[in-house]
Design goal:
- This protein is an alpha/beta fold.
- The chain folds into two domains: 172 residues, Beta Barrel (Lyase, Ornithine Decarboxylase, Chain A, domain 1), CATH 2.40.37; 245 residues, TIM Barrel, CATH 3.20.20.10.
- Helix content is 30%, strand content 24%.
- The chain has 13 helices and 21 strands.
- The strands form three sheets. Strands 4, 14, 15, 16, 17, 18, 19, 20 and 21 form a nine-stranded mixed beta sheet that branches. Strands 5-6-7-8-9-11-12-13 form an eight-stranded parallel β-barrel, surrounded by five helices. Strands 1-2-3 form a three-stranded antiparallel beta sheet.
- The relative contact order is 0.17.
- Pyridoxal-5'-phosphate (PLP) binds next to helix 11.
């Protein structure tokens, strides 16, 4: 996935990056805008670092996806993968568009319900659901549980029976398909921990049909994230279709096919399939099966809609090169350190945006060399206090942040046209040790 150093073409310029993102614009006086709001106006009030999400961008992308699916004649229900960005405001926005949710923990389920997505519109995925989580989900009236192992199926049957519920179950199969993405986010190869081995799925489906408290409704697959090619999707959907036919031939009902998430986005300038192409792949594989289709997109809906707005602490020149040190760090956005991910970095000031650039490493203040957002990035002279926006940070950004180096989680803001609001406040430093106790025997 978008490795940081292994590219040969020149990086896109800030102007090119902005041109490819309809919610961003460079204003001659106000600098970088998100929707109609100057990022400087937000930073002046909230301070930095701060995450900023464009509601209009999320809405536009959701509608584009719905439009592509319906244009392809694929009746598909969208279950937003909450893990990509679980903020209540983001969930509420998507709920208002009609999205359901895909969750992987009780916490995500509670968040989605809190934001107004009813449990009856939520799918529960995940390789290690606890008994407590499953019980809670059943009591809430969860729409579907995607079961990933024989062990989980037996546990679910016992809990459903004990609580007097019937669990609607899809079996998540592992289709043994390499999604061609970063090794840390590929999930559909036989050696990955996810799903039920394809060869075991038919027998387990039969078992599910015989178990009390279980109603098998269909099949699911999710082969990875930041997928940039349709071929792995086609292979996975083909396996889902093949298994559906085999199960039906055996007299077993398969009403639902959950195609997972994973649709990738261009972080740099990589070609990425459009929703229409994904819709076409779903249609070709599943159209004659007359099944309800679900998808679980996360990154594609919210990734491009967010920026991480940060200020320059200092710029230093050493024999090793030029370093621009930001007040954001790997504890905020871990993707470059964790996945070697490339993110666009755009100066916020209109003057900086047109000044002559020179290469710099863009780093954070955390005590690790991996705390590097970009290497040899062409940037203008940036003096302390200058602001930059790290682009495409709306997915797997704030949700993966930590308080490493006793750093506070950044505040979060949502913009919609000319309106904006803080959707998550910056905490106080003392909040970092609020739940901690020093044992009496150390006092
Ligand atoms: C089961 C499941 N569904 C959906 C997603 C969403 O993936 P993405 O954000 O790449 O669309 C994930 C994340 O990897 C997942 O694990």
């Amino acid at each position: 996935m978008t490795p940081m150093p292994a590219t040969t073409t020149p990086d896109p310029t800030p102007a090119e990056l902005i041109a490819g993102r309809p919610h961003l614009a460079m204003h001659a006086m106000d600098g970088l805008l998100i929707d109609e709001v100057p990022l400087n106006a937000i930073a002046d009030i909230t301070g930095t670092p701060v995450w900023v999400y464009s509601a209009s961008s999320i809405r536009r992308r959701y509608r584009m996806l719905v439009g592509a699916l319906s244009a392809a004649g694929v009746e598909t229900h969208i279950h937003y993968a909450v893990k990509a960005n679980d903020r209540l405001a983001v969930l509420r926005l998507l709920a208002a568009e009609g999205a359901g949710a895909d969750v992987v923990s009780e916490g995500e389920l509670r968040r989605a319900c809190e934001a107004g997505i009813p449990a009856g519109n939520i799918v529960f995925s995940g390789v290690g659901k606890t008994e407590r989580e499953v019980r809670f989900a059943l009591i809430q009236g969860i729409a579907q549980i995607n079961v990933e192992s024989a062990e989980e199926l037996e546990m679910l049957s016992a809990i459903a029976t004990a609580t007097g519920h019937t669990a609607q179950v899809a079996l998540r199969i592992n289709p043994d398909v390499d999604a061609g993405t970063h090794a840390k986010i590929t999930t559909g190869r036989a050696q990955d921990k996810f799903g039920i081995p394809y060869a075991d799925a038919a027998a387990l489906y039969r078992r599910a049909a015989a178990l009390p408290g279980i109603q098998p409704v269909g099949l699911a697959a999710h082969i990875g994230s930041q997928i940039l090619s349709l071929a792995p999707y086609r292979a996975a959907f083909g396996r889902l279709a093949e298994l559906t036919r085999a199960l039906r031939a055996d007299g077993l009902p398969v009403r639902v096919i959950d195609c997972g998430g994973g649709l990738g986005i261009p972080y740099r300038d990589e070609p990425a399939p459009l929703p229409a192409a994904l819709a076409g792949a779903i249609r070709s594989a599943l159209r004659d099966l007359d099944a309800g289709v679900l998808i679980e997109p996360g990154r594609w809906l919210v990734g491009p809609a967010g920026v991480l707005l940060s200020s320059v602490i200092l710029a230093k020149q050493t024999q090793g090169g030029r370093f621009v040190v930001l007040d954001a760090a790997m504890n905020d956005l871990v993707r470059p350190a964790m996945y070697d991910a490339w993110h666009g970095i755009v100066p916020v000031s209109p003057v900086d945006a047109v000044a002559a650039p020179a290469p710099a490493d863009v780093v954070g203040p955390v005590c690790e060399s991996g705390d590097t957002f970009a290497r040899d990035r062409l940037l203008p002279p940036l003096t302390p206090g200058a602001r930059v926006a790290i682009l495409d940070a709306g997915a797997y950004g704030s949700v993966m942040s930590s308080s490493y180096n006793a750093r506070l989680p950044a505040a979060e803001v949502m913009v919609d046209g000319s309106n904006w609001s803080v959707i998550r406040q910056r905490e106080a430093l003392a909040d970092l040790w609020r739940g901690e106790r020093v044992p009496h025997w150390l006092k």
